[in-house]
Structures are given as structure tokens and as C-alpha cells.
Write a structure and sequence with these properties.
Elements: H1 4-14, E1 19-22, E2 38-41, E3 44-47, E4 60-63, H2 66-76, E5 80-85, H3 102-109, E6 112-115, H4 118-125, E7 131-133
Parallel strand pairs: 1-3, 4-5, 5-6, 6-7
Antiparallel strand pairs: 2-3
């Protein structure tokens, strides 16, 4: 699948940055889970599920999942952090994003926040001045 995260990684690579995307493990019937890294463009690589991000040499970290992304930030200490706010951490499927206040910490700690909707943009602006509406 080539969705928002992959599109952003491709755009970052086209702007001259090394871009690495770590795939999720898909359990759907017929889905294939790559076992080796795949080069998409000159500076854009997709790595298989389970790749340790600590082994990738990136100075910018882009992420969408607050608890997991924040753990990586704590360990890796990238020079620049981009948090992609793609939904609100409300009850249901996205509620785990705010375990321990992680969603709002992600907004506050990012060097740049991307927001997929006007409501997310307005919410993010309350926590960070560097927000871009990027639907």
C-alpha cells in the first residue's frame, strides 16, 4: 500500500533527505510481508516489519503513533522531529495514542506538526506554533 506516510517519505527523499519507512506486519489474507529492505527511489527505502530504527542513520524522525514514536525519540534523539497528527486520540481505535498524555506530549515536543484536518490543526496550534495543515 502506498498511503500518506509513504507519500511523505517519498516527498522527503525528493527534497534530498534520506527516507526510511518501516512496514507494519500485515495479517490480511493474501498480504505479503517483505523480509528485506526495498529501494523505492535513490533516497527512499522501505524496511520490513521488525527493523530496529536504532540501526537506521536518520537525523529527522517522522511518526504518527505517539507512544511508540516517543519511545524511539527518547532512545535515538533525532535532530528534528515531525509528528503527523492524523486523528484525535478519542475513545475507540485511537485512544491508545494518548496513554500517559502521549498525544499532547507529541504535539508539544515536535519541531513540526502536520495536521490532516482543520480541527486537528486548531487543536495542535494550542500546543505548538509550528503546525502545517496538510490534508
Amino acid at each position: 500500500m502506498f498511503q500518506r506516510p509513504q507519500q511523505l517519505m517519498k516527498a522527503f527523499s525528493q527534497a534530498g533527505h534520506e527516507a526510511f519507512f518501516i512496514n507494519k506486519k500485515f495479517k490480511s489474507p493474501g498480504a505479503t510481508n517483505p523480509i528485506v529492505a526495498k529501494k523505492i527511489t535513490k533516497k527512499f527505502w522501505v524496511y520490513p516489519h521488525g527493523t530496529d530504527p536504532m540501526n537506521l542513520s536518520a537525523d529527522v524522525l517522522y511518526y504518527t503513533l505517539p507512544p511508540a514514536g516517543m519511545d524511539i525519540i527518547e532512545k535515538k534523539r533525532p535532530e528534528f522531529v515531525i509528528f503527523d497528527s492524523v486523528d484525535e486520540p478519542v475513545n475507540g481505535v485511537f485512544s491508545f495514542w494518548n496513554v500517559g498524555g502521549a498525544y499532547y506530549k507529541a504535539l508539544e515536543g515536535a519541531d513540526l506538526v502536520l495536521a490532516t484536518a482543520e480541527s486537528l490543526f486548531k487543536a495542535a496550534k494550542k500546543h505548538n506554533d509550528e503546525v502545517i495543515l496538510a490534508p
